[in-house]
Amino acid sequence: MPVTSADVARAAGVSRTTVSYVLNDTPGTNISTATRDHVLATAADLGYAPSAAARALRRGQSDLVVCVLPDWPTGPVVDTVLDLLTDNLARRGLFLLVHHHRSTRPLRELWKAVTPRVVVGLTHFPTEDLRALRQAGIEVVGAGSVDDGGHPGIDAGNQRGLGELQVEHLGAHGYRHLAIATTPDDRLREFAELRTDGVRRACAQAGLPEPQLAVVDPGVPAAEVVRRWSRDGVDAVACYNDEVALAVLAGARAAGVEVPGRLAVVGLDDVPAAALADPPLTTIAQPSAAQAQHLAASVEAVLDGKPLPPGPTEPSRVVVRAST
Asked: Where is this region: Disordered (predicted)?
């Protein structure tokens, strides 16, 4: 059985009212320092943990911020967002709970289990979920659009722009016959389709041939795919992310295809392993820290009743290494 405030009062030899005043740090009470210290020490000895639900009821708000992470594998952008958001909220005495959502239950079921102060969405919420949150008086950040504090790293235009940036870099270096290496992970389908669309649009605008598309397993050297590209005259490949690009580099080594002599490779995300690849991988670095700062600032603005801050303006950039 959990330890209650009544147990603390009994063990400390004081009234439950005194325990309540001490544990809730109630202002305006006339309790001596010795009694206060005795109650706190007794509570600690008994392992008393106050009810979060009861504390939220007393205060009219909770100490909890929930970040709803869709069914994605986490990567460097999301990791940066969560780390920074956790740090910023901790300085305000708030806790970040990350909910890795699955489609097996409606999202609105979550609000029956926890009552957060703010909900942070890393993707759009269904209209009925937004309505349920707002009816419950729960603030929402980032679940509608970039304009409401949404995370720019998952905006559709941003995702297409990443693919376009890959093509711009390859085209500027004289590569003309491109391929696309995408991910087999169905959870990333929306991202993959947007980035692929960006590559195709940029190729069309630059007058380049329609790029070939291949699905590349990040855990397997893509030797057969690279051999096919080599036979078809492909001279550069834009990869969904750095993990896929590393599989392409491994496949090129296995197939005896020189990089970048016969095949240039560009990744996306600038993971630490990219600089250590053979050859070092050219990639696209997203402004993860700036995006995370913006989302954290949006949460703080909501908590303080202030207008949302303007979105970050730092662009994604090409990190040029030996693979191109």
From this structure: 303-324
**Is pLDDT at 153 greater than 60 in this prediction?**
no
- The per-residue pLDDT for range 183-230, each reduced to its tens digit, is 999 988 988 999 999 999 999 999 999 999 999 999 999 999 999 999
Q: For the chain, list the domains and their CATH numbers.
A: 5-50 (1.10.260.40), 60-154+290-314 (3.40.50.2300), 156-285 (3.40.50.2300)
CA–CA dist 143, 119 (Å, integer) = 9
pLDDT digits (tens, 9 = 90+) for 75-84: 777 888 788 8
Name the residue type at position 246. Answer: L
Sign of the Cα pseudo-torsion (12, 18, 21, 27, in order):
negative
With contact defined as beta carbons under 8 Å apart, do 241 and 269 qualify? Answer: yes
Least confident of 166-170, 265-269, 300-304, 318-322: 300-304
First-to-final CA distance of the chain: 64
* Strand blocks (E) in 166-267: 178-182, 212-215, 236-239, 264-266
DSSP string, 243-268: HHHHHHHHHHHHHT--TTTT-EEE-S
Q: Residue 212 is encoded by which pair of tokens?
A: 């070939």
pTM greater than 0.85 (yes/no): no
**207: exposed, middle or buried (Cβ count in 10 Å: 0-12, 13-18, 19+):** exposed
